Amino acid sequence: MSTKKEHLADNSELMKDIPANKPDTDKPKAVKKSGRKKTESKTVVSSAEEISVPVAQQPKVSVLFCASEVAPFAASGGLADVAGSLPIALNEKGCDVRVILPLYEKVNQQWRDRMQFLSYFFVPLGWRNLYCGLFKLEDRGVTYYFIDNEYYFKRSALYGHYDDGERFAFFSKAILESLDKIDFCPQIIHCNDWQTALVPIYLREYRNREKFSKIKTLFTIHNIQFQGMYDGYILGDLFGLPNEDLPLMHWGDCINLMKGAIEVADKVNTVSPTYAHEILDPWYSFGLDPLLVQKQYKLSGILNGIDYVTYNPETDPNIPANFSTHDLSGKEVCKKELLKEFNLPDDGRPLIAMICRLTQQKGVDLVERVLDYVLVHGMQFILLGTGDKIYEDKFREFAWRNPESCSVKIDFLPALSKRMYAGADLFLMPSKTEPCGLAQMMALRYGTLPIVRKTGGLADSVHDCGDGEGVGFTFQNYDAYDMLDACMRAKDLYYDKEQWKQVQLRAMNCDFSWNTAADSYLSLYEEMKTLW
After folding, report:
1. DSSP state string for 157-169
2. Is 38 helix (H, G, I), strand (E, B) or coil?
3. Residue 70 has pLDDT above 70, yes or no
4. Looking at residue 68, what is its pLDDT?
5. Are 173 and 195 in contact (CB under 8 A)?
6. pLDDT band with cut points at 50, 70 and 90 for residue 252
């Protein structure tokens, strides 16, 4: 385990180390009454008078938000940003949203020092009874619960292990078992991606208990590509499910955890309205379109947001100079410093930035095909990211052949990414699929105009400025030369300084804060409360 010293014994030794009767340290001690009688003056209240007793305001809705990663504790992608920001925004609107996640090794000591040990118990999973520790932390108005088991979660990486299915089956079952250990009964359990897809399925086992009888479930698809698919023979042994549940998850020649959650959950949603429509199409659905077409009566899409406190060009301490819609001079300083950092000349050319995983899903194959044309036509290009080696090597070659126009950093550097949002003129996102995308929202926040393919959340958040009202440059087809055309249009507008500034100001005035997304989720939660 991982937090308080008295609970840091290795899990493998727990059976012999746990005392038979652990004292309940969380209960207040009873106050011993004095044997001496005390004379008290009594106040008589007439029947006409009413005693004013303050009544605690009931939350609009109570939700347990389940996620395999949550910022700032453990993060590897967009799910962590959502899980780290949405509950805060919802609680500010009067909800009681609490978050539960695994206690990974990478959770920093500064957070562990603030945790409170609540309980330990054993989770039944197949033929096993597995130790589980439960810890609690309160931060920024949100209560976080941490599920502890060092065998499953004391690892250097969040994902990519041979037993990920077993790890997150344990996590899903532990979520439900933990509800008996805390003074919280959610109206809704909000599950996210395949790692918590088993929660709605396991919940059926608990329906005969009063605390669980009225709980509704929401399943959010952040990326349909990753569905949690395993061989069907492990259904009982690994996941502890009866053969009767096989039809719920059976998909092709395997079992599919995401498919099971879509079947069982009361509502299903995605992270943008366009993506909710796209995954009904075989091009985007990775095989689940027949099921989603059947279940589209309970499918919807809500666009994610970003933290406007963290991403604020007026106050951001991680950029060379601050700026705002009232004074953009700081953005020019940011560009000069960014060019120095990438060893490129400051000669007035438009600067395109790209920050992404170097995989085909992100459209880097389109960039590879036409980057030479972009550079020849008088633009500069910088890139930050890691991914497939073939693309890492290709972009290194571009930088080597074009030292005055192209520079790349094959790395993951969050602080540098902020300086790129602040200092670049344009931000390139030619994704093949993009469920939501947050980078384009961050770029807009810093007045860096996006060049995006119209897909998923990119289509919902970036509208082409060719109509005089948009905030970026878009292209429809997954085609390198359509992307090149969008880049050339961006270059032309860049040299029309007055029009360029107007588009920048519109971009910076966009509202992609979590406040808007929280309103939509609150409406969905309220609808779910009345389903049955």
Report:
1. SSS--TTHHHHHH
2. coil
3. yes
4. 97
5. no
6. confident
